[in-house]
Amino acid sequence: MSTITALQELLAQPRQIFITTHHKPDADALGSSLGLAGYLRKKGHHVTVVTPSDYPDFLAWMPGNEDVIIYERRENDAQVQDLINRAEVIFCLDFSCLNRINEMGEYIRNAPGTKVLIDHHQDPENFADLDFSNPKAAATAELIFEVIRDLGDQSLIDVGIGECLYAGIMTDTGSFRHPSTSRNVHLIIAELLDAGIDLSAVHRRIYDSHSEMRLRFLGFVLKDKLTVLREYNTAYIAITQDELRQYQSKTGDTEGLVNFALSIEGVVFAAILIDRGQAVKISFRSVGDFSVSDFSRKHFQGGGHHNAAGGISYDPLDVTVQRFLGLLPQYQTQLVTAPLAVAPP
Ligand code: 5GP
Ligand code: MN
């Protein structure tokens, strides 16, 4: 039986459904979760969406946001364990390893419900009963669209669901500029337009709704915190906890900063290292052949995609930065030849 037929049979009667996604959900993580939840509710299922942590305010417009349970608020622990244990179906969206969702990952691993993975990260862990992962997909939201369509229910994709999915695809493709932006992606967007989505409104809600402080923080980072290492075609940014506090940084305020480092002419590898207190969280980006998911997996317990990945370090920020810098010489040849992999115009 195909995976989609198995899912269809599983959803043939009203189910208790639990949906979760990765820590610090981005627009693809939350948009996929709330888009799928909206669809499943229309089909008569009882759905709960739980995120491991909070997420940026610029995602709060998504329909269903008001019912999301945020697990990291500890008072929710017993309730979430109970929901996981009672769920008949558990959807894991936009992450590939259960350890990315902290303790919740172990609750899910041991839960009796059927686990469904819908994701586009490399090297998925083999924990799901039904696995829709596809690392070639531009976004998990692209896969959610396809699953709903393949279940024969595209007509149930309304403006609310469609805008959640559009937000995920728009952000994970870097507004339709990454190489993952396939013909399929554009065809899906055409279908979403037919469903009535307002793409300018989604764009504004996500990209043009920042606080004044966030813009001043960006100015400070670009002026004082950006280091360009020409000999490695690399640029990086390191941010301390004090600096985050000084600019009253909120969840989501540092998102996208790493792309400024990557936007410098000649730069093929960019990193941002942020001291979050318990650990230093790192985002890596690249253009061309240099695989940041390999780099991150090998050196910073991380992973992700070829050109966009993340990792973590439990050393202090300055030690982590030195470790990062110490790794560059062994990659110098790759970093210096990488731009040549792109054909000249
Ligand atoms: P970001 O830098 O935007 O947080 O993440 C970039 C990509 O790498 C995302 O697809 C994200 O899911 C993935 N990623 C971020 N941090 C980690 C991590 O610590 N481990 C793994 N395996 N993937 C990560
Ligand atoms: Mn994604």
TrEMBL record:
Organism (species): Hymenobacter jejuensis
Gene3D superfamilies found in the cross-reference section: 3.10.310.30, inorganic pyrophosphatase (n-terminal core)
Highest rank taxon of the organism: Bacteria
Domain DHHA1: 250-315
GO MF, one annotated term: nucleic acid binding
InterPro entries: DDH_dom, DHH_sf, DHHA1_dom, Oligoribo/pAp-PDE_c-di-AMP_PDE
Residue ranges annotated for the DDH domain, each copy included: 16-169
SUPFAM superfamilies named among the record's database cross-references: DHH phosphoesterases
Protein name, UniProt field: Bifunctional oligoribonuclease/PAP phosphatase NrnA
